[in-house]
Write a structure and sequence with these properties.
single chain; 7-stranded antiparallel beta sheet; 1 helix
Length: about 130
């Protein structure tokens, strides 16, 4: 079967549009990136918040958030394992970083969109970021 040049160009354009849509979805906070094992994971992801509780979380997850004010509240509950949270601003400058969080609450000053990175090692518990 021969591929007609016109069909190849159309397929290429569709592929480029699809890739750009994926990049835009992540940039605007409509999706998250994860490379993590999640067992019993029940989560909620919104434009300005991200929360989850689970039996086991192991790996890395990222999400772009658009806080509604100038503060971001972070809560974590640890029953076992470890969890670390890092928050960077739109210029990729680190504005918050905490490793091996127990059960604790934090409030940080932000301006505009932020990227939240969660790294867990056999963590059982929950987190709430809003």
């Amino acid at each position: 079967m021969k591929i007609k040049p016109k069909n190849a160009i159309t397929a290429g354009i569709v592929l480029v549009v699809f890739i750009l849509a994926l990049i835009a979805a992540y940039g605007f906070g409509f999706s998250s990136i994860r490379s993590a094992l999640r067992i019993g994971y029940v989560g909620h992801e919104g434009w300005d918040s991200w929360s989850a509780s689970y039996v086991k979380l192991d790996g890395t997850m990222k999400k772009v958030l658009h806080p509604q004010g100038d503060t971001l509240s972070i809560s974590a509950e640890t029953e076992s394992g470890t969890i670390s949270i890092e928050v960077t601003d739109k210029d990729s400058s680190r504005i918050f970083e905490k490793e091996n969080i127990g059960t604790d609450d934090f409030e940080i000053n932000v301006s505009g969109r932020v990227e939240v990175r969660i790294e867990a090692d056999d963590h059982q518990g929950s987190f709430d970021i809003h």
